[in-house]
UniProtKB/TrEMBL annotation:
InterPro entries, per the entry: Rce1/LyrA-like_dom
Domain CAAX prenyl protease 2/Lysostaphin resistance protein A-like per the UniProt entry, residue ranges: 5-112
GO biological process: CAAX-box protein maturation; proteolysis
Keyword Transmembrane: yes
UniProtKB keywords: Hydrolase, Membrane, Protease, Transmembrane, Transmembrane helix
MF annotations from Gene Ontology: endopeptidase activity
Species: Aneurinibacillus migulanus
Keyword set includes Transmembrane: yes
Protein name in UniProt: CAAX protease self-immunity
Record-annotated membrane-spanning stretches: 36-61, 73-94
Amino acid sequence: MTWIKFTVGLLLPLVQAAIPEEIFYRYILQTRLEKVFGSIFGIFLSSLLFASFHFPSRYLLASGVEGSAGDIYSILTGTIIPVFVIGIVLGYLWKKFKNIWILIALHYGIDTLPSIASLLQIDK
């Protein structure tokens, strides 16, 4: 049973977050925004939308390092600002290398850390 939880815990961040979010926010959205508004604004806006996408679920459900449900300040500092910064970094890497696999791997690595900590029962 533990190996099933471990496997699912490692696969979910890949198939529910890293792959679809990088395809949408970098490959599709950022690429189009850059063509219309230029690189800097394209990276900024796609990162802002990427961070904003994470707000509703965290505001309603978060507890722990990502913030506390219902507490806007903790959600901003625990999720939105860090995700925005990660979006800027991933956006820059997309602009520079145009390699979606690098972005998916980095995104997956970032998203997997909390899953591994949870599976290993490591406290915050």
